[in-house]
Amino acid sequence: MSSDIIHFDETQLPMMKIYDFPSGPYPTRVRIALAEKKLQSRVQFVMVDLYKGEHKKPEFIAQKNYSGTLPVLELDDGTLVAECTAITEYLDALDGEPTLTGRTPLEKGLIHMMNKRAELELLDAISVYFHHSTPGLGPDVEIYQNPEWGFRQRDKALRGMQYFDDVLKRQPFVAGEAFSMADIAVIGGLIFASIVKLPVPPKYEALQAWYARMQERPSVKNQPAFSVLTATSD
Ligand SMILES: N[C@@H](CCC(=O)N[C@@H](CS)C(=O)NCC(=O)O)C(=O)O
What we know:
Bound molecules: glutathione
Shape: globular
CATH architecture of the largest domain: Up-down Bundle
Structural class: alpha+beta
Low-confidence stretches: none
């Protein structure tokens, strides 16, 4: 273990706020990161109802997140950090153990690459499918839909599953030998895949086995997203 790891007493950390929708795939990424870092007690969650379009209200966009998405982290001085990757990097930098974003330059580079691929090839693609080719968040929120574009993104996500299956045939975690932010991003993708009823094809055995292992982690298995999925599954 390197000597530059910072350990701190998390009870001394000022309270943070997270604008959240507890069962959402992206907010779940940050919830998993918080659980891994054991920082949940330092966070006050503020519910923003996606299905009521609260995240698209002019006040939310002007005052909390220009992109009109969740989650958003607010520090006690009012500083706002949006984007799951950025929030995870901030939380990870607060304390050195466990690391979610890597220690060495190579670990950091590989984790960032695989995290980005998980977003591009899986999670964001499924999100586009959800918003464009399914009822999404409902007619009041989904004011522009392009179903053809959504179906292309669904097919892209299926190719993404094949890619991550290949990766996980070679290594135990998405970015190599250790659990990281990149695993969390793929978990978010597969949660979203369940929401849109796009199950991982059985032939992707390595991806399925990895996902089963991930759902045994305490930081993952207790997430509200899984109770909602169980409650709504056919
Ligand atoms: N790139 C953003 C995406 C966040 C995102 O799409 N969050 C979803 C919540 S699951 C959302 O706010 N969706 C509402 C919408 O796009 O209208 C991130 O990584 O935080």
